[in-house]
Structure formats: structure tokens, C-alpha cells
Design a protein that fits this description.
17% of the residues lie in helices and 41% in strands. By secondary structure, it is of the alpha+beta class. It has a five-stranded antiparallel β-sheet, with no helix packed on it. Strands 60-66-65-62-63 form a five-stranded mixed β-sheet, with no helix packed on it. The protein has a five-stranded mixed β-sheet with strand order 68-70-71-73-72, with helices on one face.
Length: 993
Amino acid sequence: MNSFKRAFCFIVLTSLFSLQVAGQKPLYRNYSIGNGLPSSEIYHVFQDSKNYIWLATNMGVSRFDGREFKTFDVQNGLPENTVFETYEDVAGRIWFIGFPFQLAYFKEDSIYKYKYNDLLRRVAGKGNVPVKKSLIIDKDDELFFSLMRGQAVYHITPAGRMEKITQGVGFDGINVIERHGSLFYYQSGGNAGKNINIRINIPGMRQDASINRSENYSHGNIFTVRGANGELFVSMNDYILKVWPDGRTFMKKVCGRVIWLEVDSKDDLWIGTEKCGAVVFNKGNLDAEPANRYLTGFSVSAITTDKEGGKWFATFEDGVYYLASENFTTLRTEDGLSDNRINCVAIAGNKVVMGTNDNYINVLKEGKIEQHKITNNPERGIRQIEPDQNNNLWISNIDYLYYYDWKKVREFDNNHDFFSVNYINSRKNFNIKGIYPDKNGMVYLGEGNGMTIFDNGKVIYNSFLDDDLELRVESVRKMGDSLFMLGTLDGLWLNNKGKYEYLGLLDPMLKYRITDLKLLGSNGSFVIGTKGYGVVIHRGGKSINITSADGLTGNSVTSLCITDSLLWVATNNGLNMVNLNSLDSGHYKIMTFNKHHGLVSNEINNIAGDKENIYIATNSGLTIFNYRHYKPVTSPPPVYITALRVMARDTVVNPMYRLKYNQNFISVQFLGISYLDGEEMTYKCRLRGLSDEWIKTTNSQIDYAFLPPGKYVFEVLAVNSNGLAGEQPAAIAFTILRPYWKTWWFIALMILMGAGLIVTVYLLRMKQVKEENTLRNDLLWYRQQALSKQMDPHFVFNTLNSIQSYIINNDRLMSSQYLAKFAKLMRQILNNSQQQAIPLSDELSAIRIYLELESLRFQQKFNYDINIDPDIQPELCYIPAFLIQPFVENAIWHGIMGIDRVGYLKIDLIMNPGEEYITCMIEDNGKGRKQSMAEKTEYEKGRSSVGISLINSRLKLLNSFYGTDMKVVFTDLYDEEGKGSGTRVQINLPLLS
């Protein structure tokens, strides 16, 4: 049987059964005990001025920042763990209303109990609790509240004085009054009738009304909110009464007891009920059907809308539910789909057609899902759907091509002549990647090995089989009567009247692997989606490449869709919207959407769109995005610096720090609050003083190590998924001080000290030089004195007389010898006087000549000996000049002269081992110092004392100059009878270099 016969005979009468969609359900994020909440029983939820979400639970209160919950209970200061409501006053304090009516407030990360809690306990009694949304604390700390069975509004002053506020006596029912712009309501009297009376006494409305008593609930649960146009909504158990300012009323019974009422910014009325979920009435129109229902079967105890437009639903049974946007709804098998995995989606007229991973297409029309059976093989799955100009469908699975005119299905195999001739008995399959039906009824197929043209049930052309051109074609678009664009594995090809041209040779951006291809009007502009290289937009002869670096959620594009001026890009990591009008400016306006916004999955297989919605096919179901009514977040996420660590130690967060030079390892933790983006927040940080360049990061902590001394300001901004960031960053400033040795005062002090030291050293050196000069002058003077001492005029006169005597007596030999010795002595004395230190040999030579002359002059009246220690080398040992001779002279003149015996003088020079001096011993056998002193005249005594004083002064001078310890020791010698027998003088002569 040929393919045409098989196609006519193979009729699949689709099983058309309709399922009423029970409301396209939004996707919630649920937070409960497993996420960090202390209890799944939630009584209240609200957002404070800093964007934190607070949850009142049966086990304390929790603060949520989008990432984690921080719980406070009695251990943290709460008076009771059961908290019914949270409230923020004008001062920014967060108040907690606990059971049995105890108050506490949160301020600066600490909890403080209300100082009049004892009074509140007495007022509430046993089990009486405040009515929700009926407690305020004004700017003067005046407290107003009403109790469920309190029969009045209570007022407590800051001084602790309490008063009751009522509307008078004699009225049984619900009283509604206003104080400080807030509504208060209480019930008074028995009011046992069928209806419950209501007395309203608020600005603009003073009237009485009534509401039905519930048949299902015994105790009254009262709630009151004000509408946008002055109307009042009053609920009592399962009845709601709407009262207009003109006196009109409307009453509605709802499913379950009302436990929450809220009028949002769009004037819609939200009602939370017990066991029946939440419902919303557009503009508060109770006489209409609810616009939507949420969390059916749950008890919704509170509803709030955060600053990003997300809705929070507190429940008694399962924690809190977060709905990022009502513009995202999802269809799954429980809503009527035949399979959750949707491979493709298309729009045919007023129908949305989904190809699931079975043998059905699923059609969404007017809120109903119809399942149409296409094949008998559920294993192959629907891969491609493309409507023709009549909105009939061309469909493919992995093997065959199908045509569905909404009445019957025709199946086609690959009946190219090549297969008819060569593979007559084989299964002739397609390998379809893309379908494009034109207005003339022809169908162009992108296949795994080339482009195929299908016309009137027959394959009339294949590029591989007919032209030997093998191409993996994943998308086909026709630009004119005979011009085709082919998106292939190798990039973009053109087929113009049967001739192929590879555009990748002209533009490297057109070499990328193409997964989808869309035309932009009729001017030759087009968009291609690539696998791994993002999107390429080609217009005006130029190509623009947009990737994840520009803001796309991913670089692997699975599908493209164009609605008006919006380009929709589906990737394996979410959905993107590119405003084509922004391309000319060079700043691409890209919005991204993912599971946090409401997608059922980030992994998108295919998309289709119309003027209202984008239909997103995923492996987890179909998400419908009503983009026309979607309002993006316009306020940037706030950011707070939550912790600071200095040198790995926690530090209290302050706006300014002064740190030591070695406290230069800084860690900053910060938090941007966005419940829409959750944990996928991006931050921009910089450290002014180090760099003015912003750094992007997804981490909520940044470290700075080994910062040099200086002034720094750390700044951080939070950036949401649409690239929106605030203008005012969170900031802390800190100064790292220089080490003290680099501070100006220390440097100045060191300069002053250095200058002082230099001046001191200079002055000391000048003093030292002056002293040295003085010492040298004194030394020269003493040397001159010593010279004059050695050249004593008396000695010279007597010596010259002796020489004259020898000459007169014609004793030429003696006079010549005497004169020669005297001249030699004079010359040696003059030579030695030029030196500070002289060899010991020179000193001894001068002394010998002197002794010889004195001995000759006194006619051999004394003898002498000079003994030198063998360890002494006289030529190498240097001593101060003119030290020994004065003592030798004293020994001759004051010791030996005047005795009646031959005098004897002995000079011993002794080396002291290990010491830097030579001991000189001068010993005579004269009459001794005592007798010599006694025989002297007064003139001689003065002269002698001057000589000794001169010697002592010189020794002190030499000790100071050379740093030595020279001294003279006189020892008187006595004979056996105790008479003076001479003198011994000991001198320590320093060895000088």
C-alpha cells in the first residue's frame, strides 16, 4: 500500500473529551517548618518599612529576609510564644501581640516588653484577645485597642492610665468607631436575635445596619476594613456586609469563617477564610463572582502584598505561601493535560495547541483542555506543531509527518523517489527538526540531513538526496517566492532558486549552530537563536550578538517568539524579553523570568505568543504568562550591611571605624532583600579609597586583606533580576591608621630628636675637640716645661763651665768629649720634644747621656745602672716623652748630692705580662726625702714643690689624653738603724701605639 492510500485509510478519530480547567493555578513558594519556621500555624504576616517579612506563629515570631528565617521567642524576650499579630508603629518599632494579650516590641535587634503588660492582662482576663488590625500606638506612645469581647475601645496613656471609649449605652451589637485614622470595633450587649446590629460612627458615615447571624459558627469573629471609595466592609463569621456612605448595603455569605479582610492598592477586596482558602473580588464587588481563588482547602489567616508586588498568604495548616505574580499560571496533568512534558506549543486561531510527550496534542480553548489523539503509538511523542494559513495543523513526531484539519488525521511517511526505488520494503521515516508551511500549501521541512519540500502528499525534493548537500536543518523560513533561509548546525544558509549560499563566510556571527530562526518584517532583517552563543539579530547589514554577558539567562536558545516590538527568547535557564526598540541605543533592555517569577520550570522547550500571553512549554507543564498586564518591579531592592568582621572577629556594625594599622583584614556581610529573586541576588560593591570601580558578585560577603593605611568607604548596591539597582548604596567608612612610626608627629619628633642628637653630637664633638686642643696645648706646655726642666739653666751653666775648665786646662780630649755629649743631649732633647710618644730606646739614650754628663761634672761622685727586662724591646716600645728624666734629676740633686759617700743610682725597667704598661723603678742611696726636705731653704722648698706639681699635672694630663692610669709611687728607704738611706720611685709607663 503506497503512502497516499495509507494516509487516506489511516484516520485517527480523535478522542475529543473536554476538561473544565479548575482555574489555571499559579505556582506558590511554600515556607514551613522545613524551611526554618518554628511552626506551621501562622496567624499573621506583614512587611515592615525595611522590607523584612514578619510572621506571627504559635511558637514565636520569625523575620524573613528572602534567604533565611530568624526566630524570636521567650528566650529572646517575648512575654509569650503564641503571637497573634505584628504591627509597626510610626517610630519603626515592631510590636508583637501575644496571648493572653501581652505586648512586646523589637528595636535595634532586641526585644523589650511593654511596661504595662500587667494592666493588659487584667483587662483581657482569661482568653480575651484583641481584634486583628485594631491596635495602634501613636507618636506619643498612646495605646488604643479593642478586644473580641471587650465591649469598648481601650486607651492607655504613656503614664499607665487606662480609659474606655464607647458610643453610649443601650446599644446591643457591633460598634465601629475611628481614632487616629484607624478603625476600631467591638461588640456590646447580648443581641440574641437572628440579625446582629451594627452602629457605624466614623467620619463620612454615621448610620446603623445589620448582618446575619451565622448558622455554622457560635462565637462572633469580627473584621472591618474601609474601601477605596468610602464604603465599609464588615464581616461576622461567614457573612460579609458592604455598607456605602449613602446607606446602601449588600450582604454576601462566603465559604468558611472570615478570618482576614484586606483592600489592596488596586481597590480589590481580599478575603481569607477558614478551610476555604482566599478569594479576591475586583474593586470589592461582592455581587460578582470572585476574580480568583487561592489555596482552596487552607485556612488563610492573613494576606499582604510586599513592595515588589508579591502576595503572602499565612495559613493555619502549612506555614506561609508566597505568590510572586498572578500573571503566571500553570497547567499540568491535574488540570487536564495528557502529559506534563510538553515538547512544543503553537497558536492556531483562538486555540493554544500543545504537543506532549505522548500520542496526543492538548488544545486549550476558552478555559477547557481538549486531548486530541494523533497516533496510536504513545512512545514516540509529538515534536513539532505548525499551523498553516487556515489554522490547520502540521504535526510531526520522531518518524512521521501528520496533517490535522480538526476532523481527521492524515499520516505521511518519507515517500521520496529514492526510497521508493531503493527501500521499497523498509520503513520510510522522516527526521523532522522544523516545519514551515507556506501560503500555497507547500510544506518545507528541516531534517537531520537536509531541507525537504513536501507538496500535496509527496516529497518532491531533498537537498541531500537530490543535490548531495548534507545539512542538519533545524529551522526553515521563506523570505520570498524562491528564497529560503535555513538555520543549520553550521550556521545560516540561503537557498535562492535552488542555489545554496553559506552566509557564515560573510559574517562570523552567522556560523553559530542555529536552533530557531525568525524574520523581522519584510526588509531582510532576522533573528537567530543559537546553541551556546545566545541571540544574533541581523538588520541593516549588521549583526548584533546578545549573550548572558548582556543579561540573557543562558546562551543556549531553544525557541524564539516575536510579539509586536518584543523579542522573546527561551533558554535552558529561563525566559527573556528583549525590547527591539532599544537596540538602536546600544543599551539592550532585557527582562528575565524564571521559577522565582512563576515559571513551572526554567528549562524551556518551546514558546508561542499572542498579544496577551506567552505560552511556555516545559518538561513540567505549561506556564501561561500574561505579559500584557504584568507590572515589573520598579523599586530597587534595599540592601543592608549585616555584619562586619575585623581580623576574623565579629564587630558591632557602625557607620564609622578607626582601626589600627594591623587591623587591616576586613570582612563585610550584606543583604539585599528581594523575595522575587530569592537567593539569586546580584550585588555591586566597591571600596572607595582602594578603587572606584564597581565589582559584580553573587556572594553576600566580601573580604579585603592587608589593606594599607588610609581612609576607605565600602559601598554596596543590590541588583534585581531586571538589572534594577538603587541609587543610594549601603555604606560604612573606616580609617586604617598608620603605624606610629609613620605618623607625622612621630616623624616630626624623630626629626627633632635627630636634629637635637646632631646638635648634641656636634656640641659634644666641639667640646671634645676643644678639650683635645686644650690637652694638646697643655701637653705642649708641659713638654716645654719638661724641656726647660731638662735644659735647667743651672745644669747648662755648670756643664758649660766644666767644658770651659777643660779648655783652660788645655785638656782637649775631655773638653771635646764633654762638648760632644752635651751637644748630643741637646739634639736628642730637641728631637724628642717634637713627638708625643718616643721609643723607649731614645728616652734611655737621653738619660744615659745626661747621667754621663752629670757624673763627669760631679767627678764621678755617683755610679748608676740601667737594667732592662729581657722581654722589653726598647726600639718597639713607645712611651710618653720626658717622663723618666725629671725623677732621675731629682734623685741626683736631692738624694745623692750632699752625702759623704759614693752615690748610687739604679734604673730598672720591668715588663708586666698581660698589661699595657712598663714599670720603671728609680732608686738612689741618697739621704731620703725627709732629710732632704729638712735641709732645704724656703726658696728651695718652693722650687721643689713646683717641680713635683709639674710632674703630677703632666701625669693627669697624659692619663686624660691616653685613657691610662699612670701614677707615681714614692717609697722612702731606711737602713737598719732607721735612718734614711735613699728613695725609690715607681712609675707605670703606658705603652703607646
